[in-house]
Write a structure and sequence with these properties.
Elements lengths: L1 H11 L6 H29 L4 H12 L13 H9 L14 H52 L26 H89 L3 H21 L2 H22 L9 E4 L4 E5 L4 E3 L6 H21 L7 E5 L16 E2 L5 H20 L5 E5 L2 E2 L3 H6 L21
Parallel strand pairs: 4-6, 5-7
Antiparallel strand pairs: 1-2, 2-3
Helix pairs in contact: 2-7, 3-4, 3-6, 5-6, 8-9
């Protein structure tokens, strides 16, 4: 829809043929004028008494050591130019970066040492846990030995010396012999000595592991200090690199400024060019202002609306008793009633809509023909009479007069009579091509019929049958 709104004023003739050319030329001229004004502004800034830009570049060059900070007494453009040209001889300082493959090897060594330390720490933890269990076991043995030694005070008694009686005879199986108690005591004493003998060895082993772990820590710290030193070297190299980058940026600005000076020197007639360009822009603007597109569109659409109203009344369309117009803003047809405008979508049914579409198409093409607008002189309509057919006939390939009611036949005849009248009114300046199912028993209809594809010699439709079979 927006494309239609953009192009229709030109197609209707509201915009003259050379307006688009003038608008495009005005855009180009304005762009050129702005460029000239910007160039003049820069020229005044450079060639005038204000050397802010040159002084700023000089200060930046001095801050990073490109130019001696003691340079003073620069009073002319040439003085600044000579001073700034000296930086073009600058060469960047090179600084070696550390060997990253060596850093990687040290990093791998640190990882290996840390892994070894974790394994040693795990051994220390396991040994200490084992030692703690042995100590707990030793404590338990001490308790058992104390108990057995207390029982050993009655070493003269055996279970046979107890008079149990018949009822308690079964208890005899639970009372140990003295020899069994003594054997248990000897066994526990042996285990106790084993524990006491192994403990110093375990403690010594733990100390050895701790010393080994500490040595690994020292070695890791040594490697890390070496990496830190290499990274410090990298930081210094990066500083040189950053400085070189800053210097490169400043030199680029200075080179651009020096080039701009040369451009201005060779273009001394900027003010004359600006005045000439301003005259060209003003002439084009005045030319375009004189051509009021909106007023032209209003006038054209009013004339088209008059034609639409006349033809809508001829077709006896609903709401045609009101002025009919083409609403360019919303791209629809409107009937201006006394109370409010009525858009096409609220004006009757399908047959009425077909009628209004024919009216607006022919009214537009009448204007195109009469004003020699750049539009092809033909219209193609497909089945304009279909809206008048009853539902039971819409699927028929051919619909003749005798299949229709009187009011249906009359409406379709009126539709085609309107089309014939408009074509004759325009004296053959427009060609109308229609494909339809209707077959009217009407002299003008039969005379205009070019081909009956169902009965003609070629006996095929617009799309040949073999294309889809």
């Amino acid at each position: 829809p927006q494309d239609m709104k953009d192009t229709l004023p030109y197609l209707l003739g509201a915009i003259k043929e050379d307006r688009l050319k003038n608008e495009n030329e005005l855009t180009i001229k304005k762009r050129e004028l702005n460029k000239l004004k910007k160039g003049l502004q820069e020229a005044k800034l450079i060639n005038g008494n204000n050397f802010n830009k040159a002084h700023m570049l000089l200060t930046q060059a001095q801050d990073i050591g490109l130019i001696n900070s003691n340079i003073t007494g620069l009073n002319s453009l040439q003085d600044y130019s000579d001073a700034l040209k000296s930086v073009l001889k600058w060469n960047p300082k090179q600084m070696d970066f550390p060997n990253y493959s060596y850093i990687d090897s040290i990093t791998l060594k640190i990882d290996s040492l840390k892994k070894e330390k974790r394994q040693i720490d795990e051994q220390i933890t396991s040994t200490m846990n084992f030692l703690r269990v042995r100590n707990d076991y030793k404590d338990e043995i001490d308790i058992q030995v104390n108990r057995l030694e207390s029982i050993g005070l009655y070493n003269k008694l055996t279970y046979k010396e107890f008079n149990l009686g018949e009822t308690n005879a079964k208890l005899s199986s639970f009372i140990p012999f003295k020899e069994q108690i003594q054997d248990s005591l000897l066994k526990l004493n042996g285990e106790l000595k084993d524990v006491e003998r192994e403990t110093p060895k375990l403690l010594k082993y733990i100390e050895e592991l701790k010393l080994k772990s500490e040595k690994i820590v020292e070695e890791i710290e040594l490697c890390e200090r070496e990496i830190d030193a290499l990274y410090q070297q990298e930081e210094i190299a990066n500083r040189y690199k950053e400085l070189n980058t800053r210097v490169g940026i400043v030199i680029g600005k200075i080179m651009l400024w020096l080039e701009s000076i040369e451009d201005v020197k060779f273009d001394s007639d900027l003010e004359y060019k600006i005045k000439q360009s301003e005259r060209e822009v003003n002439n084009l603007e005045n030319l375009l202002v004189q051509e009021n597109v909106e007023d032209n569109m209003t006038s054209i659409l009013n004339r088209i609306g008059t034609t639409m109203t006349l033809w809508a009344q001829k077709l006896e369309l609903e709401h045609s008793n009101n002025p009919i117009r083409f609403d360019f803003k919303n791209l629809t047809i409107v009937s201006d009633s006394t109370n409010k405008p009525i858009p096409l979508e609220k004006m009757g049914g399908g047959a009425n809509w077909v009628g209004f579409h024919l009216v607006v198409y022919f009214a537009l093409h009448k204007h195109f023909v009469e004003n020699n607008c750049p539009i092809p002189r033909f219209i193609f309509f497909d089945q304009p009479s279909q809206a008048y057919f009853p539902e039971e006939l819409k699927s028929k390939i051919e619909i003749s007069d005798n299949m229709l009611k009187d009011e249906e036949r009359e409406a379709i005849n009126k539709l085609y009579e309107f089309i014939f009248d408009v074509v004759e009114e325009l004296k053959g300046s427009i060609q109308v091509i229609i494909t339809d199912h209707a077959m009217l028993n009407n002299h003008r209809f039969k005379e205009s019929l070019k081909e009956i594809w169902r009965k003609g010699e070629i006996h095929e439709a617009l799309i040949p049958k073999e294309w889809y079979e």
